[in-house]
Amino acid sequence: MSDVLDITSTFDDLSRPTDAETERAVARFLHAEARILDREAYQEWLEEFIDEDIHYWMPDMETRNRSDPRGTFRYGDTAYFDDRISELRVRIARYNEPSAWADNPATRHMHQISNIEVFETDDPKLVAACSVFTNVRNRNETDQDVVYGRREDVLRRHGNGFRLCRRRIFIVQNVLLSKNLNTFL
Amino acid sequence: MINICKSSEIPEGEMIKKEVSGLGFYALARHEGQIFVFPDKCPHAEESLTEQGWLEDGRVICGVHFAEFELETGEVHNRPIGCPNLSFFTCEDRNGDVFALINEEN
Amino acid sequence: MCQGSCQGAANRPNMQPTYPQATAFPEFAALVNREKAQVDRRVFTDEAVYRAELQQIFARAWLFIAHESQVPNPGDFIRTTMGEDDVVVVRQRDKTINAFLNSCPHRGNRVCMVDAGSKARGFICNYHGWSFGIDGKLRGTDGKVYETDEAFEKSEIGLTPVARIASYKGLVFATFDPNAPDLTDYLGDFTFYLDIMLDNDEGGTEFIGGAIRSEIDCNWKLPAENFVGDILHAFWTHQSGAQAILGGGVDLGKRYDELAFQASVYGHGIETNLDKVGNTRTLGYPELVDYVFDLSERAVERLGELRARAIGAISSATVFPNFSFLPGQNTFRVWHPRGPNKIELVSWTIVNKNAPDHIKELYRKGVMMTFSPGGVFEMDDGENWEYSTRVNHGFVTRQQPLHYALGLGTEDKSRELPGHIHKGSLNDANQRLFYTRWSEFMEHDNWSDLQNGETASPKKTNIAAE
Question: Nearest CA of chain C to the CA of A113: how many Å?
Answer without folding.
Answer: 21
